[in-house]
Request: fold
Amino acid sequence: MAKRSAPEVNAGSMADIAFLLLIFFLVTTTIETDAGLNRKLPPIQEEPQDPPPLKKKNIFQVLINQQNDLLVEEREMELGDLRQAAIDFLDNGGQGCDYCQGKGDAASSDNPTKAVISLQHTRETDYSTYIAIQNELVAAYNFLRNREANRLFGMSFTEMEADFNDAQYNGNKDQLEDKIGVIRDMFPMKLSEAEPKENN
Reply:
């Protein structure tokens, strides 16, 4: 009795199928990306202008040395105390701030719109320390913005920004953008990053 040969499987289209599967997974896969630091650079100006004069009391100096020590307003400070110190500076309640709740210290900032936080570090500063300090300073702004947004509009500033950036949001985005603008005008994020110092 003659042996029957097994039918051959046509493998000619296997390469096509593998190629189609590869394209399918490339198209449908989402790749996570790091958001990084959210900073907006000033627009390019035709002619260089001198910066407006700032009073020393309206500048909150934060320095980081090569050992990652934190020096705030010429005093050593722990990272855990930085956020509250920044809040006290920004919300001092000096001149013309009827929404500020600070002590009104004459040696601190006049107004949140005039207050500038200046951050400077050395080239040997650890990146993780630098980011942790950045986070604390941004958290101080967010705390004050959330407080005022809750007081004026009944929802936090972070919720308003999340709704504004949400494509599925059904509310009035123009009205929401106006509210966000009001809060940003009350507590503008003036975070100045000075050139790193060389360690001598």
Helices lie at 14-28, 79-90, 127-153, 157-165, 173-186.
